[in-house]
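Data card: per-record layout.
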Amino acid sequence: MVKILDGKALAEDILEQLKKQILRFERPPELHIILVGEESASQIYVQQKLKASQRIGVSAQLHSLPSSIAQNEVISLIQQLNATSTVDGIIVQLPLPHHIDPRVIIEAIDPKKDVDGFHPMNLGKLVRNEPDFIPATPLGILELFRAYEIETQGKHCVVLGRSMLVGMPISILMASKNSPGNCTVTICHSYTPNIDVYLKQADIVIVAIGKPRFIHGSMLKEHCVVVDVGIHKISNGEGKSSVCGDVIWESIQEVAAFATPVPGGVGPLTVAMLLTNTVQAYALNAFRTSLDWM
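The structure for this 294-residue chain is written out next.
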């Protein structure tokens, strides 16, 4: 029977530790969240971040902008926040409206305040195994492996998905010379033929493909570890809906050794790790400020 990797419980522990840490700070860490438009899922995610911030003592401020706003106006706001010394972290909630290029927006953020870890400089440092900020979802996955003492060294890890939010950074982290890490990593994506062949070889499977209930237990190696990053709301055809992941949960009960549920797995950790990065950004900012006074 599969053992559950309880991301919700771990996230609670992390948030409590951050709260205690913040109590010792001279001021609350300051996080600014930019939300463009009224996309419902984005609004839910932003509210989760605001609620968690308030709970642990992070001063989180929301900049809610209309979907019609020009790209240069968003950049202007980011530049103002970059120039404000008390602003520790800046995030732009994705996705953005079609007329706004997310790459341009992310590159406008000061890398020292990029607590999402998406700036090219931070991703470059990740490749060099010298990261300042690791994207929140991959960082949460690493924390799960540490907390449950999942052995990764020498294991074969298959990552399904190659997005810059999850697939690419977690593949780098799992291959890096760290613990967790030291895996042999295979990346599969929409152009990979015969995905089952790779899955059957995988000791660790990280699924981030955005397709509800795509992976069945029959596709997996026995006693593997399954991390399901997907989250979807699906209708049962009777006016009701339920939440599921990319993996068919009931099909892996007798196959996997460890697995994350949906909900309650990776999702809560994403918020906790974003705030971990924010606290780290505050510490780096305070250190730089102290040097300026010397």
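Known properties of this structure: Residues 223 and 257 are 4 Å apart (CA to CA). The mean pLDDT is 95.

See the next section for split statistics.
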